[in-house]
Specification:
Blueprint lengths: L11 H33 L91 E10 L5 E2 L4 E5 L19 E5 L5 E7 L10 E7 L13 E6 L2 H10 L4 H8 L14 H7 L2 E5 L3 E10 L2
Parallel strand pairs: 1-9
Antiparallel strand pairs: 1-2, 1-5, 3-4, 3-6, 6-7, 8-9
Helix pairs in contact: 2-3
């Protein structure tokens, strides 16, 4: 049987070796303890020591928002300020809109292939190349919906016709002429512009222009399908200026003296608001010509 030998039975040499090993372990522990405390102090010191590295968190850059292009605004038609429903008036004896029979080239100019035009001065049916003489007038009409805050009505067809400076109508008094008639279609602003002449004044009527409004060009085939049939009254001051100073309006001076808006058999029973809207606003001169604007109000 072998005896069990304890460490304290191994002699002095063994004991000295064990003591030295223990001392070395204690020194090592003291060194690591000191180094750990120094590292902790360094990490907490904002001044920083070259014996340790301080890692500062770098914030992640936030991407800047990309500018989204703003689309260009779409032009919105501007409603006309203040409007009334235009009164229905007679289309008279010279409409050439298919509602009566004329002695001229056609009884219905609305069916002519080239009736849609902006310059009404030349004849456009048959072989005549005549151009109506007179003081030039550029007229812009704005068709609006009275039931929708006077909003413009786009795509409406307007048939305009009137007498020449002698008070005569094409296709009737002048059977081989077709001037001073034509159709235009309103744009997004409800507008259509015609170039024509200032009409003369014939006996018994205040100077005027006739017009019919259709809901579309497709329906503008006969006056029977018009949404409105009415007339424009020429401004008194411009009538006096033109008739007294322009060539060819001699008979209009005398005829104008025998009539007034109040006595006219078409305009005489209209309200002041209706007359104001039916009377174009004009500017210009006999030599330079006139520009005019008028609103046509429909209840749609």
């Amino acid at each position: 049987m072998q005896d069990h030998i304890e460490e304290h039975d191994l002699g002095l040499a063994h004991d000295l070796q064990a003591i030295n090993a223990l001392a070395s372990r204690r020194r090592a522990l003291r060194w690591f303890a000191g180094a750990g405390a120094g590292a902790l102090l360094t990490a907490c010191d904002g001044g920083g020591s070259t014996s340790g590295t301080v890692v500062t968190a770098t914030p992640t850059p936030t991407p800047s928002a990309s500018a989204t292009p703003t689309p260009s605004p779409t032009a919105t038609p501007t409603p006309t300020a203040g409007c009334v429903v235009d009164p229905t008036e007679t289309n008279g004896p010279y409409p050439a809109d298919g509602t009566n029979t004329s002695s001229g080239l056609t009884s219905n100019a609305l069916t002519a292939a080239n009736v849609v035009r902006s310059d009404l001065r030349p004849s456009f049916i048959g072989s005549s190349t005549a151009v109506a003489a007179g003081v030039q007038l550029t007229l812009t009409l704005t068709v609006v919906n009275v039931n929708s805050s006077c909003a413009p009505l786009a795509g409406y067809a307007v048939y305009l016709w009137h007498c020449d400076r002698d008070g005569k109508y094409s296709l009737y008094d002048l059977p081989n002429e077709s001037y001073l008639r034509g159709v235009g279609v309103t744009d997004a602003n409800g507008q259509i512009t015609f170039t024509t002449i200032f009409p003369g004044c014939y006996a018994g009527r205040w100077p005027h222009m006739h017009f019919e409004v259709f809901s579309s060009l497709t329906t503008a085939t006969s006056g029977r399908y018009a949404a409105l049939v009415s007339q424009l009254a020429m401004p008194a001051a411009t009538c006096t200026e033109v008739y007294n100073n322009a060539t060819g309006y001699d008979t209009s001076v005398r005829n104008l003296a025998g009539v007034s808006i109040a006595s006219d058999n078409v305009f005489g029973d209209n309200s002041s608001a209706q007359i104001a809207q039916q009377t174009p606003t004009m500017s210009g001169s006999v030599s330079a010509g006139y520009t005019a604007t008028a609103v046509i109000g429909l209840a749609r």
